[in-house]
Design goal:
about 35% helix, four-stranded antiparallel beta sheet, alpha/beta
Length: about 270
Amino acid sequence: MTVLIASDLDRTLIYSTAALGLTMPDPVAPRLLCVEVHESKPLSYMTETAAGLLAKLTAEPGVVFVPTTTRTRKQYQRIRFPGRPAQYAICANGGQLLVDGVPDRDWRRQVAARLAEECAPLEEVHAHLLATADPAWLRKARVAEDLFAYLVVERDLVPDEWLKALVDWSEARGWTVSLQGRKVYAVPRPLTKSAAMREVARRTGATRTLAAGDSLLDADLLLAADRAWRPGHGELADAGWTAPNVTALTKAGVLAGEEIVRAFGRSAGEAGR
């Protein structure tokens, strides 16, 4: 039996300093392993325990670990997970399927055709974001992989009514909006992690799929998996979102990431018996 594990990365498996959630006394805080460096500075971490468990899990025969992220390919390739390198990775929220680090051109063509048919063009959405965002709280505006757009904002200053209006405007044009940390994402509705996960499952012959994620952009991925987990933080937790196949964890921060890796290992082991 082949088990495919598709996991979101930021605030699910890996955590920035701001997202670690180390609420325990310093002497009992978990030891951390840096798994990402950006501009010569450490950026993202796992607990050492989670890193060891992940390395052991990815070495198991019949386990296909697929990092699954909204990050661009360049951003993803900064990450250095312990253990065997992943043959497949899903980037740009499903818009890029990497095979041994190289974008799959056939998959990208399929994605482009579907976006052109089902939703408003990126240029229109990006222009709307720039026209409506207030310079008082907007810090950066970016287009990722020519697929979606996002803003870096001062989150506490972003008006709720602006975000609600953006959600309504985007939905009418076939797009989805997600607020994650300091980033406001606008993503075409057909651009999904679940579609890319199904493609990897088809190519690998996976008979069981496991997934984890914390944001609204991960909901389709969790629903598409046989079993899934979400941490006790993030958009899904804030909304109280769950589903019959989804386990809502109570742990938050980097310890939730460790618990997710443990859950993957248990479920993969059960499938192999």
